[in-house]
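Hi support team,

I submitted a single chain yesterday and got back a structure, but I'm not sure I'm reading the token output correctly. Could someone confirm the output below corresponds to the sequence I sent? I've pasted both exactly as they appear in my results page.

Thanks,
R.
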Amino acid sequence: MSDDTRSELYAELAAVGPYRVPFGHALITMVEPHPGHEYAYNRWYEDDHYYAGAMAMPWMYAGRRWVATRDLQLLRYPEKSAIAQPVTAGCYISTYWITDGRYADHMRWTVGINKRLNRDARVYQDRTHVFTAFQDHEATVYRDGAAGPRDFHALDHRYAGLVVEVVDAESAEQRAELLEWLRARHLPKRLAGSPAALVTVFRPTPLPGDRMTYVKQVEGVDTRLTLLWFLETDPRECWERCFTGLDEQVSESGLGRVELVAPFVPTVPGTDTYVDRLR
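Hi R., thanks for writing in. Yes, this is the structure output for that exact sequence:
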């Protein structure tokens, strides 16, 4: 072929396979820039990686970055977390939706493009992946039923805050029970009258063997659930009333244990807003 991009393949690929709007998968990646590298990391991610390493890829159709300033970090619990050591680690988190049924296609592209970015010295190394995993969508629970934005709108709708909750069960069988309890009983009750409009629930999937070496293999593939609470207010305004005690309620159910509850606010794209408030 005369054209190295083999552009004719794009037309062929577009004509086949799933392409419905609802997402089936997500990438959730919580990262800690190394001390002294906060501004440089933020500019790299905002100006390059968010686009070249994520949004420009096939089937990744929505994304949003969130940040935890120091006061938000200090609200996190439990203190002894299986996710973050210390629990305050991971001041940035990015969330992305991937078209249902396109996980394998996206993964082939993302591994290839990240290898290329590394070769071209376009990967910022002074950072640590605290909690990075591709995830399969298991459920969404809405506060207001059919009213309001759907889950596939959530990263484009201007929600004022995000709370990330990670729950571990003891076994795959117990996780299935935990998911049903969350979906049918716990989440509807917690959402009622709260500033959280919806909660999406995911289970992690293993990363491919040819992943980048700086991203560790995913833990808890058979036992873990990740919940994203989308808030209409700043999490600081409702933390005490709405987000304390989640660990106790899950523990009392006998179905799992909470390993992280962490609030974030959205970044302001193209700016260094909040970077001076991370430490």
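A quick pointer for reading it: Helices lie at 8-14, 38-55, 70-73, 103-119, 172-191, 235-243, 246-253. Let us know if anything else looks off.

Best,
Support desk
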